[in-house]
Amino acid sequence: MIGGCTTIGLVQMAMGVDPGENLRRATQLIAQAAERGAELVCLPELFLQRYFCQHEDVRHFDLAEPIPGPTTEALAAVARRERVALIVPLFERRAPGVFHNSAVLLAADGTRVGVYRKMHIPDDPGFYEKYYFAPGDLGFPAFELAGRRVGVLICWDQWYPEAARLAALHGASVLFYPTAIGWHPHEKQAEGAAQREAWRTVQRGHAIANGVYVAAANRVGHEPGPTGSAGIEFWGSSFVCDPQGTVLSEGGEADEQVVLATVDSSRVEQVRRHWPFWRDRRIDAYADLQRRFIDE
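-> structure tokens emitted (296 positions)
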């Protein structure tokens, strides 16, 4: 674990129909975060586009780009100019017919540090990601970025304790979750509060169970779906919590903003000494986790 304090920033933004305008707005918010002291900034999942996975349309594959590609090159220049490291989620075109939901990590000098490919791919009403994305094949690594080791997991990954644990086992002291999650408008009144609280709670649980910071960057705004669909109302609420699950900073439900917090490796050390979950893990007894279900 690399020591010291780092100020991190989460960009919470609304996406329009023009990818160029989304990139311009993201660049503005990155600059705002850097001006306020951020050393590492994370953008939301698939920030260049509106959330196109609300329906299946082969034309949407035209939105994908390679890594490296135009967006990584543009934001590498931003990283150098603002002297800030970046986590950049992208629709990756890996090869003809092979696409991923990915995130590129850029150092403050613009150098590409690594890539994470989303491992858990949902297929639910309004979230038809299996049509577009192959599952990731790079595992759950940690990367050295802005003076510490960080893990990057994307949206649906945030519900899986195994993903958080493995990234932490690779040495991550901060888990970043770029996200695109929200309400189906017809469900919001009855289920909305419980859905959002479950989202916050499970990620705070990952922080506690692993003795790490968690930082989730979500989008905001209503994005219409296909004809006849109510679309999705993205609930923002981007937040950073510490290794005891205490929320340090949180965004609102609807506004574009930058959420800032300082993460401290000494806090990770302190919490893990007092709550020694890592010491008491029974690594000899967990082989059955590799089974889909344990049939008696």
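The CA atoms of residues 168 and 253 lie 29 Å apart.
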